[in-house]
Amino acid sequence: MERPAWAPRSIDISVPSVSRIYDYYLGGSHNFEVDREAARRAMEFMPGLPKIMQANRAFMRRAVRFAADEGITQFLDVGSGIPTFGNVHEVAQQASPGARVVYVDHDPVAVAHSQAVLAGNDDVGVVAADLRKPREILSSPEVGQLIDLNRPVALLLVAILHFVEDADDPYGAVAELRDALAPGSLLVLTHASYEGIPLSPERAGGAVDVYKDIRNPLIMRPREEIARFFEGYDMVEPGLVPMPRWRPETGPEANDGPDDEDPWTFSGFAGVGRTA
Q: Are 101 and 73 a contacting pair, CB within 8 Å?
């Protein structure tokens, strides 16, 4: 297999990567045949996966604009993946010039590619760290340099928590990050769930098994378990809802995502909470 220039030598390109599979669903070019094969296998069970990912991205962009409108100029995106068109820093810096963004991912491909894309943007940093180890994120030089934890921060956990098993204490990790943030900070979150998927859980389970096979189990939590991540936050209206239902836009920005009436886009939940 030919190794493209953007793929660091240290990574095994014969093993599928969650962030490259996500990139493929979004129509990106930073993925290999092994990733596309895993993605196609999952889509045999859940053909709407690309629509779900697009709805995720559209929600993320709306939430970043919302945060900027609320006066937040600092963004911590954990599990950020491979930066594609319309990423957090582009949306944030367009809405609020000088906004600072730190991307965090534990996938070396995502980190290396982010560094290449973001070279020369002094208001953006990239950290190789894992959501399961919040201290490593908070004590990283990039966070120290770019994020003032005494001022409100928008913490983005978009399509990441469903890759953290209960045994790794995702609630503890989210609480530790919350406790490090100033009052008025926001938590922006999406999470996969069997609720809302226009298929039986048995059929959708075939796609979940594909992720298990590539050693990245996908944990489908019910709504009440997802709501628990917002403990210590006040929910921003309209609360924890299917992604297209979170402050849908009208006017020119409305074409930002997939068809909002597509039944697949209602799979899983999205919400924003604010610390008191």
A: no
Q: Which residue has the higher pLDDT, 160 or 115?
A: 160
Confidence of residue 126 (pLDDT cuts 50, 70, 90): very high
Q: Which of 122, 1, 71 is nearest to 274 (CA)?
A: 71
SS3 186: strand
Question: What is the dihedral sign for C-alpha 125, 26, 6, 15?
Answer: positive
The rounded percent of the chain whose pLDDT value lies above 90 is 77
Q: What is the pLDDT of residue 148?
A: 98
Peptide bond into 238 cis (omega under 30): yes
CA 203 to chain centre: 25
Q: How far is CA 24 from CA 12, 21, 31, 126, in A?
A: 18, 5, 6, 21
3-state secondary structure of 130: coil
Query: For residue 83, is the peptide bond before it cis, meaning its omega torsion is within 30 degrees of 0?
Result: no
Residue found by looking up tokens 């490090």 in the block: 180
Query: What's the pTM value of the predicted model, to 2 decimals?
Result: 0.92
Task: Go through the domains of the chain in sequence order and give each one's CATH number.
Answer: 18-243+255-275 (3.40.50.150)
